[in-house]
Design goal:
Blueprint: H1 14-22, H2 24-32, H3 38-50, E1 56-61, H4 67-73, E2 78-85, H5 88-97, E3 105-109, H6 112-115, E4 123-129, H7 137-150, E5 151-164, H8 170-184, H9 190-203, E6 207-208, H10 209-219, E7 225-229, E8 235-241
Parallel strand pairs: 1-2, 1-4, 2-3, 4-5, 5-6
Antiparallel strand pairs: 5-8, 7-8
Bound molecules: S-adenosylmethionine.
S-adenosylmethionine (SAM) is lined by residues 14, 17, 21, 31, 62-64, 68, 84-87, 90, 111-113, 129-131, 134.
């Protein structure tokens, strides 16, 4: 399928995603309070990276401020780091956060759906942290093919994303997610929680793991190995090998 044929089916709004993440400080507070389970995901990813026996290039799609990835990658056998993000505000912070990485770093501003195919290189590891769900189902399906073309032989696609439980609808997921955020995100003001809920309920399109597996295997990846699933069944960290 061609990218231009997807535009009719797209009901996502990249401008509103960019606007939300340009107000980076709210997202930072959510992460700092570990409301999205970054600590456990970092531990799981670190353990997985410990098992790699070769240096690797790393493509970080939706890298944000790159705080998560740079912390994970510091001190590892990194060949190169490339980050892409739609938010210039996040990328300015990423520029600072990646300074300590010893490998060459490149940062690109733009929509990764459009820009992935323009990258000249392929990558041993491609990581997508909490941003795949901003694509519609048709876009995700197309994107898995693009991702497969950008993975080096023997490489792995790592995805950390919200996932629907088996048989769950988007509406049902959003209902329990909103209940959870309103009840558990006590360190945030009412206004901040409302802002986060507005973003998630209008811009997020989580899929079931079986749906992601179907897309991934159709593109030539192996089915996911689940590296982490949070206790509330909202998020999963998955490794798709080639
Ligand atoms: C929830 S944040 C995750 C940031 C970081 N990966 C992490 O795990 O903390 C999602 C990031 O993806 C970016 N993003 C969302 N859709 C994107 C797209 N289509 N192209 C590029 N970046 C995108 C947002 O600007 C934001 O920085």
């Amino acid at each position: 399928m061609q990218l231009e044929n997807l535009s009719g089916s797209a009901n996502r709004d990249p401008d509103s995603v960019r606007e939300f993440f340009n107000g980076w400080s709210l997202y930072r507070r959510i992460v700092d309070n570990d409301y999205l389970y970054h600590r456990s995901v970092r531990e799981s990813l670190a353990a997985w990276l410990d098992g790699l026996d070769h240096p690797f290039s790393f493509l970080d799609l939706g890298c944000g401020d790159a705080e998560f990835s740079s912390g994970l990658l510091k001190g590892r056998h990194l060949v190169s780091y490339t980050g892409i993000d739609i938010s210039p505000v996040a990328l300015d912070l990423a520029e600072k956060n990646t300074r300590d990485l010893t490998a060459p770093c490149k940062l690109h501003v733009g929509d990764f759906l459009m820009s992935l195919s323009t990258l000249a290189e392929s990558y041993d590891l491609i990581y997508i942290g909490l941003s795949l769900h901003h694509l519609t189902r048709a876009e995700k399906e197309f994107f898995f093919g693009e991702l497969r073309r950008k993975i080096s032989p023997g490489g792995t696609l790592l995805i950390f994303d919200p996932v629907l439980t088996p048989g769950e609808s988007r509406e049902s997921y959003m209902g329990r997610w909103v209940d959870h955020a309103e009840w558990a995100w006590k360190a945030l003001s009412l206004e901040e929680v409302t802002g986060a809920i507005e973003h998630v309920t209008t811009s997020d399109y989580p899929e079931e793991i079986t749906t992601l597996n179907h897309m991934a295997t159709g593109a030539g990846f192996l089915p996911a190995e689940i590296l982490f699933m949070d206790r509330t069944d909202f998020y999963a960290l998955m490794a798709f090998k080639t």
